Amino acid sequence: MNDTFLKACRGEETEHTPVWIMRQAGRYLPEYRAIRGKADFLTMCKTPELAAEVTIQPIDILNVDAAILFSDILTVCEGMGQGLAFEENKGPILSPPVRDRAAVDKLFVPDPEDELGYVMDAIRLLRKELDGRVPLIGFSGAPFTTATYMIEGGTSKNFLNTKMMIYKDPDLYRSFMDKVTATITEYLKAQIAAGAQAVQIFDTWGGIFCPADFREHVLSYVKTIIKDLKEWMAGRGESVPVIYFVGSTAGLLEDIKTSGADVYGVDWRIDIDAAIKRLGGDVVVQGNLDPLSMFLPKEEIEKRVQDVLTRASSAKGHIFNLGHGVVPQTPPENVIALVEMVHRLSGE
Ligand code: CP3
Fold first, then answer.
1. Active-site annotation holder among 32, 65, 99, 149
2. How much distance in Å is there from the Cα of 175 to the middle of ligand 1?
């Protein structure tokens, strides 16, 4: 098996720097669009055969060193009892929005094998179909990022309703977050039990706070999850790496270091060597090319890949990735070239 990704997660030497791309299974690939033309997004998530097929597409097409399960961070919201729809060109709609005590009380902490069994079925199928080619990454949203969608009812610009709940009724926010945190913890355990070989916690919107609010309203819940996962894994005699990705990482690195994660995602708004230094040097990092640099000429992309590799050499381990998800307009040939560059330049 190509175990460069798992070795790098553990801080071990690898023959080249492993690379995978956030949102590697998606609309920039014509092969994805062909399947998506026949089924809507949620149907794809809920049909293990389709989810497995699009998960494997980027392994064949890009030659990346890890597969990430095709699903979405918002399926747990439906599992908790909230309505979920993806409307064409509008993004996710969560209904009704969670804004008061009655709405929080209606939510429940689901048994993941019951309410989200299709995810675990996809993982079990993928482990068979991948047959050891590359490791499989499972994932969830972090409690805060998930909660923003549940409170706002969808995507938001300034997170007004979320911040209003936090500042005006902190007790309500806390009891809501306790339910979301318990749900995500059980969900990630179920993914690991089904065969996920690493898990990434996406905190896309965690960076919208000042550091003190980040610690209290975002990070504390992530710490609870990681601590619980680690104890649970230790009891099972296994240790599956946990990656913590926060959007707008730069102002929060010292705090992120306390999360308990094995690997820290770094976005592109900071040089990765500066991030490594602030994290304390002896760390494993993942990142951090600007996703939009995929629109540069290939020679320019190569210069930037070399720059990230050189800067990241001061870390204990480095997993190459973009600083956030690949965007749908990206030319696939540039992503194919990116993976080849990372392998060639880091293997010399
Ligand atoms: O990385 C992968 O390839 C695995 C699959 C994956 C998807 N979403 C598929 C998807 C992963 C890991 C996610 C995570 C996710 N989903 C995040 C966190 C990471 C990030 O990008 O910030 C968030 C915030 C979401 C919520 C979400 N899902 C939104 C806001 C939207 C609509 C906007 C958009 O990008 O279209 C989605 C839809 C979605 N999730 C698509 C895909 C492939 C597009 C659906 C389609 O085909 O129409």
1. 149
2. 27
- Three-state secondary structure of 111-137: CHHHHCHHHHHHHHHHHHHHCCCCCEE
C-alpha span between 91 and 154 (Å, rounded): 7
> Any idea what DSSP says for residue 258?
G
Average pLDDT over residues 171-183: 98
Per the CB < 8 A criterion, the answer to whether 126 and 65 are in contact is no
Ligand 1 atom, smallest distance to 58 CA: 3
Q: Render pLDDT for 274-302 as a digit per residue (tens, 0 to 9).
A: 999 999 999 999 999 999 999 999 999 99
Q: How remote is the CA of residue 92 from the centroid of ligand 1, in Å?
A: 9
Choose among 184, 214, 179: nearest CA to 200.
184
Give the pairing of strands 136-141 and 198-203. Answer: parallel
Amino acid identity of residue 289, one-letter, is: L
Question: What's the 280 CA to ligand 1 centre distance in angstroms?
Answer: 31
- The radius of gyration of the chain's CA atoms, rounded to the nearest angstrom, is 19
N-to-C CA span, the chain: 21
| C-alpha distance from residue 22 to each of 38, 200, 231, 233, 300 (Å) | 24, 10, 28, 25, 21
| DSSP H or E segment with residue 288 | strand 284-289
**Cα distances (angstroms) measured from residue 315 to each of 69, 302, 312, 345:** 27, 21, 6, 17
23 is catalytic: yes
Q: How many CA atoms lie within 13 A of 247 on its CB side?
A: 15
pLDDT tops 70 at residue 348 = no
Do the beta carbons of residue 291 and residue 259 sit within 8 Å?
no
Please say if 264 is a catalytic residue: no
